[in-house]
From TrEMBL:
It comes from Glaciihabitans arcticus. This is Aspartate/glutamate racemase family protein. Pfam families: Asp_Glu_race (PF01177). Belongs to the aspartate/glutamate racemases family. Keywords: Isomerase. GO terms for molecular function: amino-acid racemase activity. Coiled coil: none annotated. The keyword Isomerase applies. NCBIfam families: asp_race (TIGR00035). InterPro entries: Asp/Glu/hydantoin_racemase, Asp/Glu_race, Asp/Glu_racemase_AS_1, Asp_race.
Length: 229
């Protein structure tokens, strides 16, 4: 089993899901008392969020690259970044290490293509939904990406930062997400990418009329497959 390196804390709510999923998936694959061989650097999300808000992605990339280097120094044989949004700085992370970096958008796109779908709705932070770094990566796999209206993007973003990152899950927000996913389906989405690692805390397959693609689970599955290959 290869050692999995995790860059987490953005937020720790979803990083805890990564840890749980990695261990459950290893146990499913190997049985008995097996669990994942992993090492985690958990960053202070307040610092990262402030850099997001100010647009200082260069400094954010430096911090995450340092985290990746520390993981490799601790014996990590592959690195997983436990957040969709911060894949905006995937390049400096990859440049900082010699071990494989498992890009979350690639993992997600492969799952969508394996399902035979091309046109997908994308939910995530405003950065993920509105900027090119994530949508273009999906498009490079031949996917057509739809995003909610500006007003609905604001709702999705607010719920992530003001509720889910703080461990709050409400029926009101679940209803709003269901409505927004319904709007995407009405616009032609064949599936919905839950493109923020916290969204799976709120909605799942039963909340949409089309297949959903849970990026946290898909990323964890890819990490375990790589670790056990």
């Amino acid at each position: 089993m290869k050692r999995i390196g995790l860059i987490g804390g953005m937020s720790w709510e979803s990083s805890a899901e990564y840890y749980r999923l990695l261990n459950e998936l290893v146990r499913e694959r190997l049985g008995g008392l097996h669990s994942a061989d992993c090492v985690l650097v958990s960053l202070d999300f307040a610092e990262i969020e402030a850099l997001q808000a100010s647009g200082d992605w260069e400094r954010a990339g430096e911090i995450l690259a340092d985290a990746a280097r520390s993981l490799e120094a601790a014996g990590a044989e592959l690195v997983v970044l436990c957040t969709n949004t911060m894949h905006k700085v995937a390049a400096p992370i990859e440049a900082a290490i010699t071990v494989p970096f498992l890009h979350l958008a690639d993992t997600t796109a492969e799952a969508v293509r394996d399902a035979g779908l091309v046109r997908v709705g994308l939910l995530g932070t405003a950065f993920t939904m509105e900027q090119d770094f994530y949508r273009d990566r999906l498009a490079s796999h031949g996917l057509e990406v739809l995003v909610p209206s500006p007003a609905d993007r604001a709702i999705v973003h607010r719920v992530i930062y003001d509720e889910l990152c703080l461990g709050m899950v409400t029926e009101e927000s679940r209803s709003e997400y269901r409505r927004i996913m319904g709007e995407l389906v009405a616009s032609g989405a064949e599936g919905i990418i839950l493109g923020c690692t916290e969204i799976e805390l709120l909605v799942g397959p039963s909340d949409a009329s089309v297949p959903t693609f849970p990026t946290t689970r898909l990323h964890a599955e890819a990490a375990v497959a790589a670790a056990l290959s």
